[in-house]
Amino acid sequence: MIRSVASTVVDFLGALRAVHPAPAPAGGGLASGLNLRGRLPPLLPLLLTSLLAGCAASTIVIDGDYPSPLVGKLPLTVGVYYSDELRNFSYTEINDNTGDDEYIVQGGASQLELFNTLLPALFAKVVELPSPEAADAGVDAVFVPSIAEFQLGLPQKTKLKVYEIWMKYNMKLSNPNGEYIADWVMTAYGKAPQENLQTVDAGVQGAAVVAMRDLAASFTLGFKDVPEVNEWLKANNVALE
Amino acid sequence: MHRLLPVLCLLLLTACTTTEIDEFRQATTSISDGESIVILGRRQNNNYETEGNFVECVANVVQNGENGIRVVPEREFLDAMFPFFEPRTAPMRTSHLKQLMEVDQAKQRLAEYGIEYIVWLDGLTRRSESSGTMSCTIGPGGGGCFGFGTWTDDSNFEAEVWDLDTLESVGSISTDATGQSYMPAVVVPIPLIARVEANACSGLGNQLKQFIGGNPESGT
Asked: Which helix (H) or strand (E) is B107 found in, with range?
């Protein structure tokens, strides 16, 4: 798009030059001095593109790999459903001064990577479902994670020397027939220190990975302690260590 | 010689770093071949977190040179022990370590790594007393800077050593390094940087090596 805008501007300038040809400067001028005469139009789109690129929002794609938790598996088959909102999760940070989009954080793929590493370590079998209603009789429970809130703290705004990410998740566990088992909220926090010559991308990536590891740690160690989950596990004769 | 004197004086100023190391020992320590340690940074504090680079630097000092001790890399250990040593779940006291050792998987993994001691590093480097001004200009004929800047760095770190046999703290080592850096600029800025954090790392690492190795000469 930026390229097409730049081309349009070049075309406009070209048309303008045809109507009002500029007088040749005495002594050749800058174009002649730098030997740019005749090469200016090809360079112009590049110049404009680089100038306009400064106005566009930067996209940060969260890319992390997560370790498998060191815990015993629960003897359960769990179906997991990832909604489109989670799969395509993205957060837009607005520039406070201009009101324009400043950074777009895309984290859907990384969320799936996290849950696909976490859940098989916690449960004997995990099956991905195309919809929450698609669970068959072999599934003990259906798990649906979602992100309810996402906050990004940038050093240039918070005046702290750290990048921070805070996320609120909503976790739902239900029977294969859709009956409620548990519905609970989890928060995750991650920070990464601001370093010299570090890009915003690297800082946000660092904070996001820490936050998602934080969620995985809390989920792993706290799953059996969620009161409704605990009751359900006991009712299903699942041994709790 | 007289012309070189100002340069020599400026270079001497870079050495103005003071490092103080204190050791507190609560029990005897020793480590044999095949055993290892892990050095971890504390990251639960809201205001700061122990820098990964500093942890790596201390680990390099401990495992290299004479009487080097095998150190398991921090990232490898955190991944292998996940989720027990994350900022929100890491044991803060030895009583928490005792609870962790009741988890079979965790106990077994620590044994697989042959870890004898866990060293917790906590601290940061603060910059203060910054003063001076510098201005730089650039023009068709060239550019240059003129001015003078100075600042003080203060590194404070503490290493607490936990024994995985007794599940008790066996002592701690603290380091306090302070140094002033200068940046005079006459056309070209000349950074005269005090290596404060590097000195803190070197001092702490070497003392830690002696402490864990059970060297009776260690201590203040």
From this structure: helix B104-113
- Cβ of A220 under 8 Å from any chain B Cβ? yes
Q: Measured between CA atoms, how close is B51 to chain A, in angstroms?
A: 8
A66 phi and psi angles, rounded to 5 deg? -125, 140
CA distance A8 to chain B (A): 33
Give the pLDDT of residue A64.
83
CB contact under 8 A, B82 and A221: no
Mean pLDDT over all residues of chain B? Answer: 89
**Contact predicate B181/B192, CB 8 Å:** yes
Cβ neighbours of A72 in B, within 8 Å = 105
pLDDT level of residue B215 (50, 70, 90 thresholds): low
Other C-beta atoms within 10 Å of A143: how many? 24
Name the B residues in 70-129 with CB < 8 Å from any A CB. Answer: 78-84, 86-89, 105-106, 109
CATH of the domain at B112: 3.40.50
Whether pLDDT at B68 is above 60:
yes
CA distances, A176 to each of A168, A185, A203, A234 (Å): 25, 21, 41, 18
Homologous superfamily of the A58-235 domain (CATH):
ABC-type transport auxiliary lipoprotein component (3.40.50.10610)
Q: At A166, phi and psi to the nearest 5?
A: -130, 130
The answer to ipTM > 0.90 is: no
Domain coverage including residue B55 = 19-126+155-176+196-213
